[in-house]
């Protein structure tokens, strides 16, 4: 049984429910951030991230920096793009707009390739765009948290390497790492950015990323210095290399408690094959999506091949409103998220199903949430046609 105080089950697309041991790690006694015990923990954490991202290339480099997933956009924009560089941003929802804004802030020229709401850009149109202009980077939101749309990384990366091999393939994996398959080396990815509070299963506060040797070389060959101090690879690259080599190093103070929590979470994740973890998320996802269909409801992402495994975005019946439904679900002990995409925000809700809510067989978070959703919709007057 959990030792956590009784609380409503948090089933939004992050932050998620956390394992007791992870939360207990947050209560670790105070340590020096340059002392040998903490340096060893941080070094092991970075090495475990290589296994999570599935890279054994010594030229690639993991980064763990205090901040949110948003900091990942700055790491990419400040270090890999220079003023005037063209960047192709694949748009599958709200977060592509934000990534484009960040790139523009640093002087890059983002071009958004927008898909209809609930879908993702298709290979022919991506190929056409790549042939029309030389892009320094191509960015992909792996799972757009606003729509629940999953973009298939492998064929896009293959396309980029075939049509525009100098273009770096950058993935916003904030809502995918830990719940969706990512093979960094095999798929020839150049950067994946994420955060601690979603599929990785650790409290919020850490920006986590992996960059390829090719991306690091792109940074090293810059003609202009990075326009950020805190997000600069110049400052962080030697720190991460030193920590991974178990050498004390300092640029900005990390959070020892959050690093301990991440170390615990990664230890749990890697205690069994990653294939089993991803299979558990697919199974839970199918259970949720079947329940949605059985209720006569539609998903924001209608194509099964483009539906995320760690969350589901659900259109509400016309007679049910978000401000009525969500408080009712809260009273029943489950927290879902409202809509985020500005064009449809009032029409749908989001159900997060990742991490321990999916992988811990002792928990019935998903099954109970489905029943709560059914009863909440019934209370609001919805009856399946």
Automatic annotation (TrEMBL):
Domain Aminotransferase class V: 26-339
Enzyme Commission code(s) on record: 2.6.1.44
BP term (GO), one: glycine biosynthetic process, by transamination of glyoxylate
GO molecular function terms attached to this record: alanine-glyoxylate transaminase activity; L-serine-pyruvate transaminase activity
Any GO CC annotation of this UniProt entry: peroxisome
Keywords assigned: Aminotransferase, Pyridoxal phosphate, Transferase
Keyword set includes Transmembrane helix: no
The keyword Mitochondrion is assigned to this record: no
Residues bearing the modification N6-(pyridoxal phosphate)lysine: 198
Enzyme class: transferase
Entry superkingdom: Eukaryota
Binding site for substrate: 350
UniProt cross-references to Pfam families, sorted A to Z: Aminotran_5 (PF00266)
Alphabetical list of InterPro entries matching this protein: Aminotrans_V_dom (IPR000192), PyrdxlP-dep_Trfase (IPR015424), PyrdxlP-dep_Trfase_major (IPR015421), PyrdxlP-dep_Trfase_small (IPR015422), SP_NH2Trfase/AEP_transaminase (IPR024169)
Cofactor(s) the record lists: pyridoxal 5'-phosphate
Protein family (similarity comment): Belongs to the class-V pyridoxal-phosphate-dependent aminotransferase family.
Name of the protein described by the UniProt record: alanine--glyoxylate transaminase
Organism listed in the record: Oidiodendron maius (strain Zn)
């Amino acid at each position: 049984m959990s030792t956590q105080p009784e609380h409503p089950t948090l089933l939004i697309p992050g932050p998620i429910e956390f394992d007791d041991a992870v939360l207990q790690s947050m209560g670790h006694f105070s340590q020096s951030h340059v002392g040998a015990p903490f340096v060893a923990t941080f070094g092991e954490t970075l090495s475990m991230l290589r296994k999570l991202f599935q890279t054994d290339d010594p030229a690639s480099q993991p980064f763990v920096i205090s901040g949110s997933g948003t900091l990942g956009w700055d790491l990419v924009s400040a270090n890999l793009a220079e003023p005037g560089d063209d960047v192709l941003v694949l748009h599958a929802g709200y977060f592509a707009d934000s990534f484009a804004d960040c790139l523009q802030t640093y002087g890059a020229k983002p071009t958004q390739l927008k898909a209809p709401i609930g879908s993702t850009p298709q290979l022919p149109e991506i190929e056409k765009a790549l042939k029309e202009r030389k892009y320094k980077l191509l960015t992909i939101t792996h799972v757009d948290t606003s729509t629940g749309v999953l973009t298939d990384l492998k064929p896009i990366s293959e396309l980029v390497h075939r049509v525009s091999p100098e273009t770096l393939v950058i993935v916003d994996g904030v809502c995918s790492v830990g719940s969706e398959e990512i093979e960094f080396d095999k798929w020839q990815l150049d950067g994946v950015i994420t955060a601690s509070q979603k599929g990785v299963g650790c409290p919020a506060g850490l920006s986590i990323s992996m960059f390829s040797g090719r991306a690091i070389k792109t940074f090293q060959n810059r003609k202009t210095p990075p326009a950020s101090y805190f997000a600069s690879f110049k400052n962080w690259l030697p720190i991460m290399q030193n920590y991974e080599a178990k050498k004390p190093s300092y640029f900005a103070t990390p959070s020892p408690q959050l690093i301990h929590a991440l170390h615990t979470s990664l230890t749990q994740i890697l205690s069994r094959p990653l294939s089993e973890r991803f299979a558990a998320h697919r199974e839970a996802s199918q259970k949720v999506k079947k329940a949605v269909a059985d209720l006569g409801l539609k998903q924001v992402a209608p194509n099964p091949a483009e539906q995320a495994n760690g969350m589901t975005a659900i259109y509400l019946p016309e007679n049910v409103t978000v401000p009525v439904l969500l408080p009712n679900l809260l009273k029943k002990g489950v927290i879902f998220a409202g809509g985020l995409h500005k064009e449809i925000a009032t029409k749908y809700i989001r159900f997060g199903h990742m991490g321990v809510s999916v992988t811990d067989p002792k928990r019935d978070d998903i099954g109970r949430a489905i029943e709560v959703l059914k009863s909440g919709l019934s209370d609001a007057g919805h009856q399946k046609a």
